[in-house]
Amino acid sequence: MLSAETISLVKATLPVLANAGTAVTEHFYQRMFAHNPELKDIFNLSHQKSGRQPAALFAAVATYAQHIETPEMLAAAVERIAQKHTSFLVRPEHYAIVGEHLLATLQELAPDTFDAATSAAWAQAYQFLAGIFIDREGTLYALHEREQGGWAGERAFRLARKEPESEKVTSFYFEPLDGGPVMDFLPGQYIGIKVKPSQGDYQEIRQYSLSAAPNGKDYRISVKREDQGLVSRYLHDELAPGAQVALIPPAGDFFLDTQSQWPVVLVSGGVGLTPMMSMLESLCAQQPGRPVQFLHACETAAQHSFKGRQEELAENPWLTLHSWYNDQQGLMDLAPLRSQLPLGDGHFYLCGPIPFMAAIKGQLLGLGVAEGRIHYEAFGPHADL
């Protein structure tokens, strides 16, 4: 455990961190990539350019400093980050590199505050937190390898087929090159894919939600083509059936509770319906009769992915569909559904753009849904609603 003096020194730097804001993490990433360019094969450089990753890292650093006396308060955040780290194949040796550049950044940006004693305190605090992550990630890696059909690190898969699901979304089916089984996953989790786009300078790792129920044989992801998305454009425009990719075992802390019988409401915006399709398919296969409502919003009818499959599944009397097309009905409004939604006992799963989920969460809280029954997934670096 950390000493009282170490805790006091770290907490005393909170005002400095707050004033510096994301300048700290922007400097950190510039420094780290300049000294260790090999890490560009691990980090999502698109999120660096957009500013989302520096913002997420700053929030994590500040939150850790704030709760350094009570690390148990960070358990959910640690689990979320550890799951993501395993899909990037983060290893213990990477923590030493990150720690070196984080401490150097603090000393370079605020030399008066981060003197020898304070720097030593931050080094101890960082090592303590790194140890928590290393232990948890080691456990996850071991679990992945022991699972039926599981593996460690990268595994070679071939693209079996591509199927368009809507105007902008295409599904990709991957089968293991060795012909063996593949490990199951929890509905809502994602898988890491490693590719080398022809227009990129580095290997790229991305996480995409698994969009079908687990079957032990193959994996399906459903990807929206983004005009500025290096990897999504490569998958849509260049990756052909028969091509080989590396997949990293499924991970993620956002998943359906398949042990409960409480009513479920799946709420998605745009391509955020991909983990919801995995949940929906799994509910239909494993828990027929459990009340389910599927609420989906997208820009136009032409962008409504899996519409036919949803209508086919809705022949089950316990499944109800609701759709909103922004060009026709406007934004999703839950008030007219007040009497139909299980506001008192249902569990609500949200996925989509951050503003969409924030608006839906606000509506649900306004309708009386307890915050503990609202679960959500943010693509890319995590953001609180």
From TrEMBL:
Q: Where is this region: Reductase?
A: 149-385
Q: Which residues form the Globin domain?
A: 1-138
Q: Does the keyword Ion transport apply?
A: no
Catalyzes what?
2 nitric oxide + NADPH + 2 O2 = 2 nitrate + NADP(+) + H(+); 2 nitric oxide + NADH + 2 O2 = 2 nitrate + NAD(+) + H(+)
Does the UniProt entry include the keyword Flavoprotein? yes
Query: Which residues are catalytic?
Result: 95 (charge relay system), 137 (charge relay system)
Q: Which UniProt keywords apply?
A: Detoxification, FAD, Flavoprotein, Heme, Iron, Metal-binding, NAD, NADP, Oxidoreductase, Oxygen transport, Transport
The UniProt site entry described as Involved in heme-bound ligand stabilization and O-O bond activation is assigned to 29
Quick one: which residues bind FAD? 190, 206-209
Summarize where NADP(+) binds, as residue positions.
270-275
So which cofactors does this thing need? FAD; heme b
Where are the residues marked Influences the redox potential of the prosthetic heme and FAD groups as a site? 84, 377
Q: Which SUPFAM superfamilies match?
A: Ferredoxin reductase-like, C-terminal NADP-linked domain, Globin-like, Riboflavin synthase domain-like
What Pfam families does the record tag this protein with?
A: FAD_binding_6, Globin, NAD_binding_1
> What is the E.C. number?
1.14.12.17
Question: What InterPro entries does the record tag this protein with?
Answer: Cbr1-like_FAD-bd_dom (IPR008333), FAD-bd_FR_type (IPR017927), FNR_nucleotide-bd (IPR039261), Globin (IPR000971), Globin-like_sf (IPR009050), Globin/Proto (IPR012292), Hmp (IPR023950), OxRdtase_FAD/NAD-bd (IPR001433)
The entry's heme b-binding residues are: 85
UniProt lists the family membership as follows: In the C-terminal section; belongs to the flavoprotein pyridine nucleotide cytochrome reductase family. Belongs to the globin family. Two-domain flavohemoproteins subfamily.
Q: What is known of its domains?
A: Consists of two distinct domains; an N-terminal heme-containing oxygen-binding domain and a C-terminal reductase domain with binding sites for FAD and NAD(P)H.
Name of protein: Flavohemoprotein
Which organism is this protein's natural source? Gallaecimonas xiamenensis 3-C-1
User: Which gene does this sequence derive from?
Assistant: hmp
